DNA sequence: ATGTCCTCTCTTAGAGGA
């Protein structure tokens, strides 16, 4: 079973790239972030025509998350992260597909830091920790994947010293990610590729992709049940080089 | 400070977010 995550940065602007990638990579499940489309403008027909079912949670202009599945039924569990009914951002959707609970998340960017946006990021992180702990306690197979907007360690950044004051790499952010992982989650990419330079995002600015000035910010966290089933994990890096690409590349895992 | 790309609007230029 192949599960992928892809921050598309605009599902309608990205539609040709998304469809091309789905046809080539053929994930069984694809989690999408940054739809940047209201509920009614999700391109369901094109995605159905490509052979995928979908559930999504849209929002005008910003955010937005979706879960696509090629053959198995998608049983939606929730479409918001618990813990703050006043948080209206579309940043979380959760479903059961093929007996695996899949949480698709788009963690706040948090810049500029410090400031209210950074506070919102840390608050969201805390709610994610609380929810993730409950999922672990349920003792079922869980994948928490998406754009975490965190480089977990120095090897996940092309130039760590330039990023220490950024909301994606500040000590508080890295500590929040570590605290989450330390609950008992496994970072799938690092489980299989502990020391390799692996990036999932390259800025549109300054030819970042051409210089491989990248960041690893899209992650797969696996509950203990799934760790023995993890076969492969990788990044479809070439997709970032396609015409009209997102600034992120798709990331995927394969489970036995 | 800047670079670039996406979306939306008091729209064809500028703002906001990343």
Tell me what the structure shows.
This protein is α+β, with helices and mostly antiparallel strands and 256 residues long. The chain has one domain (2-255): Endonuclease/exonuclease/phosphatase (Deoxyribonuclease I, Chain A). Helix content is 21%, strand content 26%. The strands form three sheets. A six-stranded mixed beta sheet has the order 3-4-2-1-14-13. Helix 3 packs parallel to helix 4. The longest helix is centred in the middle third of the chain and has 22 residues, at 116-137. The N and C termini lie close together (6 Å). The mean pLDDT is 97. The protein binds one DNA strand of 18 nucleotides through loops.
What is the rounded Rg? 17 Å
Query: What portion of the residues fall into strands of 2 or more residues?
Result: 25-35%
The second-level CATH architecture is 4-Layer Sandwich
Biggest sheet, open or closed, and with what strands and sense?
6 strands, mixed
Number of helices, counting only DSSP H or I runs of 4 residues or more = 5
CATH superfamily: Endonuclease/exonuclease/phosphatase
Report the strand count: 14
The order of strands across the largest sheet is 3-4-2-1-14-13
Helix content: 10-25%
Spell the H/E element sequence.
EHEHEEEEEHEHEHEEEEE
CATH fold-level name: Deoxyribonuclease I, Chain A
- Oligomer state of the chains in this structure: single chain
> Can you tell me the CATH class?
Alpha Beta
How many structural domains does the protein architecture include?
1
Give the termini distance in whole angstroms: 6 Å
Low-confidence stretches: none
Question: Any idea what the shape is?
Answer: globular
